[in-house]
Design goal:
The chain has an 8-stranded mixed beta sheet, sandwiched between helices. The protein is built from 15 helices and 14 strands. It folds into 2 domains: about 1-190 and about 360-370, Glycogen Phosphorylase B (Rossmann fold, 3-Layer(aba) Sandwich); about 200-355, Glycogen Phosphorylase B (Rossmann fold, 3-Layer(aba) Sandwich). It has helices at about 10-15, 25-35, 75-100, 110-125, 140-145, 145-160, 170-180, 215-225, 240-250, 265-275, 290-295, 310-315, 325-335, 340-355, 360-370, and strands at about 1-5, 45-50, 55-60, 60-65, 105-110, 125-130, 160-165, 185, 200-205, 230, 255-260, 275-280, 300, 315-320. The chain has about 375 residues and is of the alpha/beta class.
Length: about 375
Amino acid sequence: MRICFIDWFAFGLFNPKSKIVFGGAQIQLFLLAREISKNKKFNVSFLTDNQSYFRQDLFGKIRVYQFVRSPRTPGFYGRLINLTAYFHFFFRLLSQLGKINADIYFQRAASAETGLIALVSKFLNKKFTFMVAHEQDVNGNFIRQNGWRGKLFLLGLKLADRIVCQTKEQQELLEGSLKTKSVIVQSGYPIKPPKKFKKTDILWVARAEEWKGPEMYIRLAQKFPEEKFTMICPPAENNPKYFELIKTKAKIVSNLKFIKQVPFSKIDAYFSRAKLFVSTSLSEGFPNTFIQAAMGRTPILSFKVNPDKIMDRYRIGFCAGGDEKKMEKLLRQILKNDQLRRQMGLNAFNYVRQCHDIRQTTANIIANIF
């Protein structure tokens, strides 16, 4: 069976020399593609954007096709230009996917392209699976806030042959807001015992986006001058000026180490060295960083995100419920109790080994999709 994964920001995972910034959604598709490619029953390809037409590369057993997305122009005239560009994009995509000729196409995270990929799949008489990456994918926010792009995304949901959610909460939101059925497949990662590192610092990893809360993390670092804080913060494509602002603010905090980007192959060591992972996001799907932290036996302190209440159910960390003062209080509590941190770290590793092994995730995808 021929399957193709589509994501415009994933090329950096295949080629570490690429400067394209990727996130958890891209990591999940990359890991899933790599694991499925080990199965001789499947022929796996990946369509991504590296600003190059028609180029193909073989990475292991995965054939990677390069594409060029439609550029976006701001302003009123930009909206007209963008709409025209999407028509052009549709026919280029139709041609490209026709050449790839997969039986099933996978795409993750809300975008206007979700609808276009679903339409192309129907034209080609192929199957399309959409994979949820964020709460906004299922609660209707992306649809309401993005005009005709939101309508295209909604069309993609309606045309999808399968929708895959990460959590029960996402599934309930999807059924409540859009009356659409889905299956649950938890995010996966190659789970292996962490290397032994001395746990020295407090870690934050995310793109420089306001809803990720980097400024809150900087404020926390300022309130705990006796602790070492590390911030891995690549720029977001849609807001490079905000990255420069965060970088400037972080650089003046003496106990905060700012790192622009770390290759995917080296990031796990940072999670293993951390004595605590901090998430300041206002909303997420199921953060890939939670799995990476847990695999490093590192407990989690989250400002607001607590998917399916895993912090409480598995005792892998704490959630402040959106209260910044409580966040500070919980951080002090965790830092004062070495035994609590070790126990939560062990709980976290046992949790991801039980629930997020990429082999089980892949088996669930095969059982529910193919």
